[in-house]
Design goal:
The chain is α+β, with helices and mostly antiparallel strands and 272 residues long. The chain has 2 domains: 9-151, Fructose-1,6-Bisphosphatase, Chain A, domain 1; 161-270, D-Maltodextrin-Binding Protein, domain 2. 33% of the residues lie in helices and 26% in strands.
Length: 272
């Protein structure tokens, strides 16, 4: 299956969702709710954990998606980056298990994140949280869904009281700048899942600290856009993918209706 003009975003979304569910089922075989994983755990350079489950899921997704999208490049947290991807119009961006520390500890808030990017922007994206039985999926121009039901950010928001997730110091500074009470939700281990919370309206905004990677955010970026929100840096511009550098500065996920005010407060709070 080639990535070209006749490849619909909906078909791509459904293909990603099928692969993500299969990958999630594989990961669940190693997961123990409330207890340590059965998978072998090692430390990567820098100290972050990687498990046999991460590697098995990565291999499954690469095999399935390379067959489905042979023209696309590949970028994954668990695969060595290859600059050859920069020559491709299309790119698959994958985090086999986003929230590995949670997975290892038996916390269900982890996810498989998969996106198809074409010409620098996601056209299909899926964030599948197997242990929570939640699948978020989006296709460009076709909206965002949770378990097949449409999701969108609220159309009416009380700007004096905002629910948020992210670094406490940044959010408190934003609240002070806005003159709003900032209700800060407990930290969620998976960044992709945190951003999905904003897409479905569980929270009003989310802040990602500096040093997130493209595999953490690409799928959720499209989910936010299709739900009526946006994921941006200090410039306020939509993010562009398939660049040499995959590490990001601090990011803001916000409803379109509140984005100008929240972005101003975000810049002040982060010194951007």
């Amino acid at each position: 299956m080639s990535v070209d003009a006749d490849r619909s975003a909906l078909a791509a979304r459904d293909c990603l969702a099928e692969a993500a569910r299969e990958a999630g089922a594989l990961a669940l075989g190693y997961f123990r709710l409330g207890a340590a994983t059965s998978a072998d755990v090692q430390s990567k350079f820098g100290g972050s954990p990687v498990t046999a489950a991460d590697l098995a899921v990565d291999a499954l997704l690469k095999r399935r998606l390379a067959d489905a999208f042979p023209d696309a490049g590949w970028l994954s947290e668990e695969t060595a980056d290859d600059a050859e991807r920069l020559k491709r119009r299309a790119l698959l961006i994958v985090d086999p298990i986003d929230g590995t520390r949670a997975f290892v500890a038996g916390d269900p808030r982890w996810a498989v994140s998969v996106a198809l990017v074409v010409d620098g922007r996601p056209v299909a994206g899926v964030v599948h949280a197997p242990a929570l039985d939640e699948t978020y999926a989006a296709a460009r121009g076709a909206g965002a869904e949770l378990n097949g039901a449409a999701i969108a950010v609220p159309t009416s928001i009380d700007r004096s009281h905002l629910r948020a997730v992210g670094p406490k110091s940044v959010l408190q500074a934003m609240g002070a700048k806005l003159g709003a009470a900032m209700e800060i939700a407990p930290r969620v281990p998976s960044l992709a899942y945190r951003l999905c919370m904003a897409a479905r309206g569980t929270i009003h905004l989310a802040v990602a600290a500096e040093n997130s990677h493209d595999w953490d955010i690409a799928a959720a970026d499209l989910l936010l856009e299709e739900a009526g929100a946006r994921l941006v840096g200090a410039s306020g511009e939509r993010l562009v993918y398939n660049r040499p550098h995959i590490r990001r500065r601090a990011l803001l996920a916000a409803p379109d209706a509140l984005a100008p005010q929240l972005l101003e407060a975000f810049r002040a709070a982060t010194g951007a």
